């Protein structure tokens, strides 16, 4: 029996939480398990599902379940639990499921009765919630079997040599670019032990004592092809067999989440095109069950990393499912005991991630489901504020900001700005959901905090925010972090904005940002300031610098002043640095949001703006995905062509002479700025100068 409307259901959030636990325990470092140092929640083992139905005639249904289960109709036990008949009339169905290993889940399929989000579920405490689901109703695809696609890979080059760490010949394979999946030893003859070393760089694969990941397995001689047990990140693979064991070759299978590349960017600079392609591949490798930080080392879900991935996803895949899975998994269960990932800033990024997910996707029901978790997290943060109403690190907190040397004790202006924006976002969401008291309280707290931030940290003499304050005394240090976030959040008037741009963002005496993580925000702030040419130059220098070193994916950190082995070192380990890190993919967002210039101005792109900018390039063109179709943009020195998606769009652009379009009415806004309304699925061509 099939029914395309039936879906698997479970206790809300449990599937994501169970899967998060599974993913979190995969990390190993040189053969040793490295579990996360934050709390990992578990799923409910025993739950009840219920639904009231009214049938004009009796109906035969089929029930699939993960776990031991029973069925009760109107309080009476049904002993045919896998396929049973519901009598005509009004009835209450209750299905109880117990499963300590995986998430208790059911799929019920009938002609008029089926499982969907309208069912309710309880953890046997008489509190009934709407069931959770991923909208998958395939009986053969169990919720506990998260499936990836596979694709065969062959090395682009393979070498055989006598190794100093082996009595027998070794194999070294180069797969041409960073990838992820399972390596297979082929042409196996004999029996014995083989050690396989993985490297994102050649140097790492050649270092048996320094490589981050390796496999050490024994082959019994019964097979000519042996797939290694763990999925790994690698470009280079070196196999070192014992004497008496022959390995004929190495192959691999790329394991990936099937995704559609909806976003596109191309321009007149081929190096920028290469950078966009590499960024897209980097993000795809790190998009799996959740958005991961990197594919070699942690393979964990970090809130700050994920927040950027959400926005990158909005301009490349627009895959809502992986964003929601990640948000649910990160937040976990109540009560809140620590900041997310123990990091103060990461709690705020999660709140902003929920807000942005609604802005880009427009899913009010997901927002409604997330709001109680958002509220309890925000209240936890506010409960840790000091007597000034500000956040500072308490015992057990990690104040991260960025991988850079800086003062992190006391009150950091950066953290107060994140809290303020989180309060504003929470107030908007509370108001939207009808929580008037919360909305009023959060909005008032945000107004007070914003006033206090300017009083405490703004330095008139230097025209910028100070980095921090300790014991009520403002420190002298000026860093980019609070200043660029104040600009991004729209907190600066025109005079302060101009000062921050000139005296901080474009000031070479202010310490430079060295990680792609914070360059995401730095370059976004420069785009907000209209410095698109500067952004092009910095992308070419920074991301292009990684390509010049042979990078096939973008790194966790890149310091152009480093060379040789020091390029790969981090955390006190010679190859600790991730060379495929999701936060390295920020050109996707920068090009889509600030060069193609597409962004929502109301939830779900009901209204949106297209504000393209060449940034000194001769031509840009591309596609930005939305829930209502794709927005297509092309711009050169003389023409702009835009095809709108669903929703009400506006094209906004500058011209030194009166522009012209036969496709719509152009309105002059003043100061050389013009605007044209975009109808859905219609193409507009504008000539301008």
Please describe what this structure looks like.
- The protein has 14 helices and 35 strands.
- The protein is an alpha+beta fold and 689 residues long.
- The strands form 8 sheets. Strands 13, 14, 15, 16, 17, 18, 19 and 20 form an 8-stranded antiparallel sheet that branches. Strands 7-6-9-4-11-12 form a 6-stranded antiparallel sheet, with no helix packed on it.
- A hairpin with a 2-residue loop joins β6 (68-73) and β7.
- α5 (320-331) runs antiparallel to α6.
- The model has no long low-confidence stretch (mean pLDDT 95).
Number of helices: 14
Average pLDDT rating: 95
Largest beta-sheet details: 8 strands, antiparallel
Q: In total, how many beta strands?
A: 35
Parts with pLDDT < 50 across at least 5 consecutive residues: none
User: Radius of gyration over alpha carbons?
Assistant: 28 Å
End-to-end Cα distance, whole Å, is 63 Å
